[in-house]
Write a structure and sequence with these properties.
This protein has seven helices and four strands, in the order αααβααβααββ. With 219 residues, it is of the alpha+beta class.
Length: 219
């Protein structure tokens, strides 16, 4: 009995010792596996068995993948700046001439003289007509030709910066064509007919003796 008991106890001790050894080995392996996983290198003094390498091939160190260069941000191509707009063209127009109004035969003859020399016509001015009537009455009343302030009064009509006056008489009353010929044959009178004017007015007054007196105002 004692021998059997002692032998049985020996078997239990061996079993326990073997079991303890297995447990210890399992912990060591577990510790080694944790160390290698954390640092990817074997811990100092730890043994790596062939079975360890076969079971964990990922433990081989590989260089980290080289990151591919990310494309540099590029700005979208911008359209070239628009060319500056050309400044608007300013056209200078010559002052427009007044609408043509014909109120006397002498005015028509004056415009014919101007047209023959490439000059524009003179239109009628009621303001100048009032000046012409006043001057025609004055020279008819006095019986002879003279100039007073006719051109200065003409400027008062506000039709321009220049003014002129022609006066004449004819012993047989009103004769526009004859007086126009006489004016054109006189350098000073012709200068008014062909002058830089836009307006004209004429007036005849017949005196008691039958003489016709004419006043022509320009501006």
């Amino acid at each position: 009995m004692r021998l059997a008991s002692w032998f049985g106890g020996l078997l239990i001790a061996v079993a326990v010792a073997t079991s303890v050894g297995a447990i210890s080995l399992a912990r060591q392996h577990s510790d080694s596996a944790q160390t290698l996983t954390a640092s990817r290198q074997p811990a100092a003094g730890a043994a790596i068995t062939t079975s360890d390498r076969a079971q964990d091939p990922a433990r081989k160190l590989q260089p980290p993948p080289t990151p591919s260069p990310s494309p540099s941000p590029t700005a979208a191509p911008t359209a070239p700046p628009a060319a500056p707009a050309a400044p608007p063209q300013v056209t200078t127009r010559a002052p427009s001439r007044p609408a043509l109004v014909i109120n006397s035969t002498q005015q028509s003859l004056i415009n014919q003289d101007r047209a023959a020399r490439g000059l524009g016509p003179l239109t009628w001015s009621s303001c100048l007509y009032n000046v012409a009537v006043s001057n025609a009455k004055r020279i008819a009343a006095q019986g002879y030709l003279s100039h007073t302030n006719g051109p200065q009064v003409d400027l008062g009509c506000g039709l321009g910066h220049q003014a002129g006056e022609n006066v004449g008489d004819w012993s047989l009353g009103i004769n526009d064509r004859q007086l126009n010929t006489m004016f054109m044959n006189s350098a000073d009178h012709r200068a008014n007919i062909l002058g830089p004017y836009n307006y004209v007015a004429t007036a005849w007054v017949v005196a008691s003796n039958g003489y016709g007196f004419i006043a022509v105002e320009f501006s």
